[in-house]
Amino acid sequence: MKILIHADAAKAVDCVADLLVQRVQRLPASVLGLATGGTMEAVYARLIAAHRAGAVSFGAATSFNLDEYVGLSPDHPGSYWHYMRQHLFDHVDFDPACTHLPRGDAADPEAEAARYEAAIVAAGDIGLQLLGLGHNGHIGFNEPTSSLTSLTRIKTLTRSTREANAQYYQRFEDVPRLAITMGIGTIMRADEVVLLAYGAAKARAVAALIEGPVSAACPASILQMHRKVTVVIDEAAAAELTLRAYYAEVHPNGGPATI
Ligand code: F6R
């Protein structure tokens, strides 16, 4: 596990955007695993800027998002389809036929989850998987106690996850209770994983992910078993790491942004 600690969130975001751009420059037909949430908004803004500057084209790439809320159609303002159009897809040159999210409004959500898993397998699995981190250690919407070998399926969201996302809805009661999410096993098949977390509120989950036991109590801790993971954090999110000085010695100031 490569741990890159940056002085602030902006530098951590730049680092992750650089890693994605480098991957697509090197392998234009990359299969990217994308995430949503507040953490990623700044990353996508950097990707849009890089695209506008002519540094990168997503025209040959394919994307699969981690998750979508059950019950929301792609045009619902709270859906992750909507988020992705707003924050990335409408501003860069992905072929719309090559961008994928689960259909939250599918008549049979379980069948939709199975279809989505099969589509990822058919694409040859994810090349680079981008992840955020939940305060409770979730990745995708794999909440604590998720099977560490799970595939894409329906998960019930914890109250804390619904509270963290309530800002995007008028009322807490409007935040969906169920999501279709890539499984932990799905994520673990990715060639490489880049996880981004910043801010003091993520420090406990970051410490559990990097230094805690591998446990379904912190689903992100399974990444300790992945061969190629880069965890990009800022100083605030690094605050509870026991071996923080060691990581900083290996990659001073976050090190060069290469995988
Ligand atoms: C989003 C996702 C989640 C978020 C996590 C962090 O697609 O799967 O795991 O990455 O909840 O969310 P933010 O960035 O809003 O703190």
Explain the overall architecture.
- The protein has 259 residues and is of the alpha/beta class.
- The chain has a single domain (2-252), classed as 3-Layer(aba) Sandwich (Rossmann fold), CATH 3.40.50.1360.
- The protein contains eight helices and ten strands.
- The strands form two sheets. Strands 1-10-9-6-2-3-5 form a seven-stranded parallel sheet.
- The model has no long low-confidence stretch (mean pLDDT 97).
- Fructose -6-phosphate is lined by residues 35-39, 66-67, 132-134, 138-141.
- Fructose -6-phosphate binds next to helix 2.
Tally of individual helices: 8
Could you describe the largest sheet, including whether it forms a barrel? 7 strands, parallel
CATH architecture group name: 3-Layer(aba) Sandwich
* Inertia-based shape: globular
Bound compounds, please?
Answer: fructose -6-phosphate
Structural class: alpha/beta
User: What is the CATH C level class, in words?
Assistant: Alpha Beta
From the structure above, extract its key features.
single chain, 259 residues, alpha/beta, Rossmann fold, seven-stranded parallel β-sheet, three-stranded antiparallel β-sheet, 16% strand, globular, binds fructose -6-phosphate
Task: Give a nutshell description of this structure.
This protein has 259 residues and is an alpha/beta fold.
Furnish the topology, listing elements before pairings.
Layout: E1 2-6, H1 9-26, E2 31-34, H2 38-52, E3 62-65, E4 67-69, H3 80-87, E5 99-100, H4 109-122, E6 128-131, E7 153-156, H5 159-164, E8 178-181, H6 184-188, E9 192-197, H7 203-211, E10 229-234, H8 244-250
Parallel strand pairs: 1-10, 2-3, 2-6, 3-5, 6-9, 9-10
Antiparallel strand pairs: 4-8, 7-8
Helix pairs in contact: 1-2
Bound molecules: fructose -6-phosphate.
